[in-house]
Amino acid sequence: MNDRLLIATLCALGLLSTTGASLPYPLLAPLFADGGVNGLNSFLGLPPKLLLGIALMINPLGLLIGSAVLGPLSDGFGRRRALLLTTIGAALGHLLTAVAMVMESYVLFLAARFVTGLLEGNGAVMRAIVIERIQGPLRNHALSWLNGAFNLGWLVGPLLASATMAGGAALPFQLAAGALLLGTLGVLVSIPATPAPTHGHGWWSMARRRHALTLLQHAPLRTLFIVHLGYCCGVAALYEFFPLWLVDVGGYDAPRIALVNMGMCALMTTAALFAGRASALDGRQRAGWYAGMGAMAILCVGFGSLEVGIAGIVLFGVPHAFYNTALQSWSADAFAAHGQGAVMALLSTTFCIANILVALAGGLLSLVDTRLVLVLGGLLAVWASFALRRWRLRSAQPNLEGA
Asked: pTM higher than 0.85 for the full model?
């Protein structure tokens, strides 16, 4: 098997996965809030902004469930099979989304976006394939590059939507579906077929018995979940509320907000190219330092002027890219006995939970002052930084908890 082809295939699928998730953001606001009446923004006579909020939430909800379930399912039914089925299914989900846009069917749109999100939760499967099939120092580099591909998708999606929306709101989803179907050819070529493990359980039984959150019955994995959740809440506070902060503090409009976001995504993707370098330090220790630097960047937004805050937003991408690679690599080594799909799914699910928690709490805090959300997120990331390093110091030997 060609490792380079495998890495390229997985990075392409990771890029397409988050590209598909981010496609609707520049498309939906005009459809729901331009004052015109259509089938999407007049469903049951509900307020268009409420319908928009539900439409934006439904894909991350599917992503949360998929992230918790698909990785562990691939432990039992095979990585290649899981990746092929989810990729083809996500492509069909994009096609259904395009149909819903043409028909102006709100119910079909919600169903299509939920299913697409559910199947795009296969990032844990991709990371598990990298961990199992790439050996030596290249493994960490491959994980880092895959993370960079996921990050880049959040930049490519809105750009693709903006560039193609003149051809109709359905066209970006049709292009995403076609690209994913082409991606399945890369899976067929780069990942050899292997017999699925014998387990004697159906897929539904496996999903109930082995979803990612079942790992929380183990104390070290509970610690990983809690500490990672603290850091992810800081990340979510920045991701979700820096646009509102730019509006409040600088009066920024959508194009200027997009420019700042492009700077952060570009720097994060570039940093991911170098984040996989080998280190003699324990992964928790390195992740703790990177979390601390990320926390400082978030607090610069919460406490700083417009210029300082923008610098914090853009520079945040560097420590975040290094944090992801350090923690994922260490977790893969420390908890391999629990199944790589399940462990990577736990990390992905934690991030999804953090996004939901911050969206709920941040919505209330922002009614008082948007900076409160960012300061709280920064403080949680500071706590995670110290907690990771304390966890490392409590260990008699590196990776003792995972033994």
From this structure: no
For residue 104, what is the DSSP state?
T
Amino acid at position 219, single letter: A
C-beta separation of 33 from 49 below 8 A: yes
Indicate the angle between helix axes 219-250 and 317-334, nearest 10 degrees: 170
Residue located via tokens 């096609």: 95
Helix %, strand %, coil % for the chain, to 5? 85, 0, 15
- CA separation for the pair 12, 283 (Å, rounded): 27
Contact 173, 40 (CB under 8 A): no
Predicted confidence (pLDDT) per residue in 326-352, tens digit: 888 888 788 877 776 677 778 878 887
Gap between the Cα atoms of 151 and 291, Å rounded: 17
Q: How far is CA 61 from CA 37, 56, 67, 323, 338, in A?
A: 27, 9, 10, 25, 25
- For residue 176, the one-letter residue type is A
Rg (C-alpha) for the chain, rounded Å, is: 21
